[in-house]
Design a protein that fits this description.
alpha/beta, 303 residues, D-Maltodextrin-Binding Protein, domain 2, single chain, 24% strand, 3 domains, elongated, 9 helices, 39% helix, 14 strands, 3-stranded mixed β-sheet, Arc Repressor Mutant, subunit A
Amino acid sequence: MDRFEAMQIFVKVVDANSFTKVSEMLDLSPAKVSRTVQLLEEHVGARLLNRSTRSVGVTEDGAVFYDRCVKILADVADAESSLSTHKQKPSGTVRVDTSGTLARALLIPALGSFYEQYPDIEVRLGLADRNIDLFQDGVDCVIRMGSIEDSSLVARAMGRARIVTCASPGYIERFGEPATLEQLSEHTAVNYVSARTRKNFPFDYLVNGELTRIEMKCALAVNDGSTYIGAGCKGYGIIQPSRYMVADHIANGELKEILTNYQCPSTPVSIVLPHRRNLSPRVKAFIDWFTELARSNPDLQAS
């Protein structure tokens, strides 16, 4: 059994959810495709696929093995591409992990320009505010806000996100607009709780160069960025988000910046990479594109 060929066939079967489609795609007999996967299962000592007369489904072990196979096949393709004497357009799949809020506010609106430059690259977005193992999860890069604690990874700074304090017009109409930090004690906040650390994000300000942390009453705490912003728009309390995430809400009047005389500490935005891997052309293309996207956004230029 050619293990490399077997992995290719296995990946295609999972993608197509069909032995027959893969046999037609590769011009192989269905028996050959089925037998190859069976030999692969015997070799790894685990059942990779659940088969029935109508469908093919990947097992739990098969899903783990599939992710590793995809990574191995991509690495081989990158190695072959790097040795090519002809300049080719980058192609293949880039696996990117980030938060849902960042994806919706920054990536999704701009991805059209990426596809115009790189029509042969597929971007697979994983949306989770959690710690990612770039090696085990087969992720090419992670876009994260905040400090990066894992010293085994490489973090490339993309900019620093401006942080603002906001409230909805409805909230201000009901409770008034605070003019000083001292007045915040009379108001209610929507709290954001990190799904990764389970820690609450406090309201922070820089006063005479010193960090000042404000404690406020809380009626609602959430661990999802979009829900956090939505709760602020609904008037459930004051929020302190990254400005680029609420720029449209501010522009259309759903939110209003308040306490503009006070500066909030900015938050670093980084692309995180596994240090031991060379960048493939497609990953480099994505990183270069995102770097330019960050540079062009005025809300990511705070120092």
